[in-house]
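Quick review question:
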């Protein structure tokens, strides 16, 4: 039959096609769209007749029990694949510290203060709601996080004429925010500690540093097996395994030598980012965002202090913390807002930072391990609050974008 001929069989993408796809996934817009699509698919699967199949797949266990790695597919996504995302975040942080906004304390002062206030105030919102409502205080860190992929993706879509300084401010803020989330996960969400496994992970990181910095070894076939071993040891130590990804990203050399066109950190980030944006983060979202969003489920979540505190922390706490922290720092210190930016731009960016999603969903799973119902309700709150923050930010930033576009047209006419 004609349909069975080899010429009719689907062919693998050509090298130019693969290159085009990888370049697309490196852009914030496409990465954000893929992440959003994965979350929508998860919600559809969890709220239709396919919910039973979805849960069976998510909870299916496989691995190597002898190595302490018998995990469900959902945990492989959150503890394993998400390590790739944190690896890229670690590289971004290293590059910012070495050759970016964080290198100059004066330029970094405002976004750093904004990030700290944007973590502290949402946590206080959560604690206030749950202390008065008798909720579980262990989820205080959930509304602290800002999702880099989503926030920058939305900004790229709506901010075609916004000042470039706004993106730099948001990127620096989000990176510092991620660093804070990483520290919180490592310190506050480590229940038991296996000292020997942790020592093994540190020994692996020391070997990673020696191979990379002192011996100049470049072959991926050395680093991938070593990275997997470090990750497995970190997982078995009790410290969340994604910390291994951050540590390895931070250990990469970010300075360019005279004989190099780019640094190893830049080259490796260029290679790994499409896998993070196109595979690791969407698969995590696929298995983490599948919660019930029926009217009754949302009503139950609205009555639960943990969910309410999370939603208020992300939607209101982020805006209050970031905007007020930035304004007061500029008002009472020598730190100054970029002359290209207006305070209305900062307000829109503050709303955008309320998109918690990836890290917020991860912390939710860590905070309420013994309460599946609370986990589901808080995840729903994260999704609703993130969507509301994105919508509010889009409205304000579109208004600002129209103003800057008008100024650009007038400038061209002049």
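Suggested answer, residue by residue:
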């Amino acid at each position: 039959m004609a349909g069975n001929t080899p010429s009719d069989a689907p062919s693998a993408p050509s090298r130019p096609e693969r290159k085009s796809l990888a370049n697309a996934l490196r852009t914030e817009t496409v990465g954000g769209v893929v992440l959003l699509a994965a979350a929508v698919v998860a919600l559809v699967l969890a709220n239709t007749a396919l919910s039973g199949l979805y849960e069976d797949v998510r909870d299916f266990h496989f691995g190597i029990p002898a190595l302490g790695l018998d995990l469900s597919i959902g945990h492989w996504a959150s503890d394993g694949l998400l390590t790739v995302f944190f690896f890229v975040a670690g590289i971004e942080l290293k590059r910012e510290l070495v050759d970016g906004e964080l290198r100059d304390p004066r330029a970094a002062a405002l976004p750093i203060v904004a990030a700290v206030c944007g973590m502290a105030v949402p946590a206080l919102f959560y604690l206030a709601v749950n202390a008065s409502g008798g909720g579980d205080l262990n989820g205080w860190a959930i509304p602290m996080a800002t999702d880099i992929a989503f926030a920058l993706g939305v900004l790229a879509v709506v901010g075609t004429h916004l000042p470039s300084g706004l993106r730099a401010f948001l990127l620096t803020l989000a990176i510092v925010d991620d660093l804070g989330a990483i520290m919180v996960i490592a310190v506050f969400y480590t229940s038991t500690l296996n000292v020997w496994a942790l020592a093994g992970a540190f020994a692996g990181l020391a070997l990673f540093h020696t191979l990379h910095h002192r011996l100049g070894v470049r072959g991926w076939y050395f680093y991938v097996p070593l990275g997997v071993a470090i990750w497995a040891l970190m997982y078995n130590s009790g410290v969340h395994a994604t910390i291994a990804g951050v540590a390895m990203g931070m250990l990469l050399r970010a300075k360019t030598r005279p004989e190099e066109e780019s640094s190893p950190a830049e080259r490796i980030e260029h290679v790994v980012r499409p896998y993070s944006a196109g595979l690791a983060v969407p698969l995590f979202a696929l298995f983490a965002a599948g919660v019930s969003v029926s009217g009754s489920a949302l009503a139950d979540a609205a009555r639960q202090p943990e969910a309410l505190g999370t939603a208020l922390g992300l939607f209101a706490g982020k805006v209050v913390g970031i905007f007020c922290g930035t304004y007061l720092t500029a008002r009472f210190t020598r730190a100054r807002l970029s002359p290209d930016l207006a305070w209305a731009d900062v307000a829109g960016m503050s709303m955008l930072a309320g998109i918690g999603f990836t890290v917020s969903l991860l912390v939710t799973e860590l905070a309420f391990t013994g309460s599946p119902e609370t986990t589901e309700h808080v995840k729903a709150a994260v999704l609703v609050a993130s969507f509301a923050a994105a919508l509010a930010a889009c409205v304000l930033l579109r208004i600002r974008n129209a103003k800057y576009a008008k100024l650009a047209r007038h400038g061209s006419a002049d």
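Why it works: The CA atoms of residues 184 and 351 lie 23 Å apart. The chain has one domain: 28-43+67-189+240-409.
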